[in-house]
Automatic annotation (TrEMBL):
Keywords: Oxidoreductase. The keyword S-adenosyl-L-methionine does not apply. GO terms for biological process: aldehyde metabolic process. GO terms for cellular component: cytoplasm. Residues 28-119 form the Aldehyde dehydrogenase domain. GO terms for molecular function: aldehyde dehydrogenase (NAD+) activity. Belongs to the aldehyde dehydrogenase family. This is Aldehyde dehydrogenase domain-containing protein. The keyword Oxidoreductase applies.
Amino acid sequence: MFYSPKKLEVVMEKFYGGNSFTSPSLNKIINERHFDRLLGLIIYDNIAVGGPYDRTKRIITPTILRDCKPNDPVMQDEIFGPILPICTVKNVEEAIDFINSRDKALALYIFSKNIKVHDTVLT
C-alpha cells in the first residue's frame, strides 16, 4: 500500500478543518439526482478515508476509495464530485498498460518522488 489512511485523514483535516461539513471549501452537490448518482458510485467496502454525507444539505465529504477495479461503476464515467478512486498497480509499466487499455484518460496524476517514474509516464 503506497498510502496511509491516517496520513490522508491528517491532510484532509488540515485542508477542510475539523469538520468538513462546515468547511467553506466543500460545496453542495448541485441537485438530488446527482447526489444520489454520486452515492451510488461509492464502494463502501473500499473507503480509505471519508464517506459521511448529509442528504438534507446535499453534502458528501471528500471520499477516497482504495483498490478500485477497472469495471467498478466509479471508473466508468466522469465523477463530478468529491470522490477519488485509487487503482493499485505493481509498477509503472502496469500503470501505463492500464492507462493505454482505456478509451481515454481525462486526467493523470503522478504521485512519485522518483523523477524516472515521471519521465517514463510522460513519454
